[in-house]
Amino acid sequence: MSGIEERIPAPAESDWTQEQRDAVREIASGPRGALIGPFKPMLHSPFLMERLQRTGEFIRWHSEMPDKIRA
Q1: H-type helices in the chain, by residue range?
Q2: How far apart, in whole angstroms, are the C-alpha atoms of residue 47 and residue 50?
Q3: Local confidence band at 71 (pLDDT 50, 70, 90 cut-offs)
Q4: pTM (2 d.p.)
């Protein structure tokens, strides 16, 4: 664990709400393939987590920005 995950630990999986489970499923089924990085602590707000994930997904994999900027 490092950085933000140390300051804001993710909730234990056994305590997840249905909204949290749905948000994890959406992220894990996309190009990322897993719940990684800042998304773990964002489980405290699955609504925000889903929207930020969609924004990042668009910028990284669907925008027309040069690879040098997107990576």
Answers
A1: 4-7, 18-28, 46-57, 67-70
A2: 6
A3: low
A4: 0.70
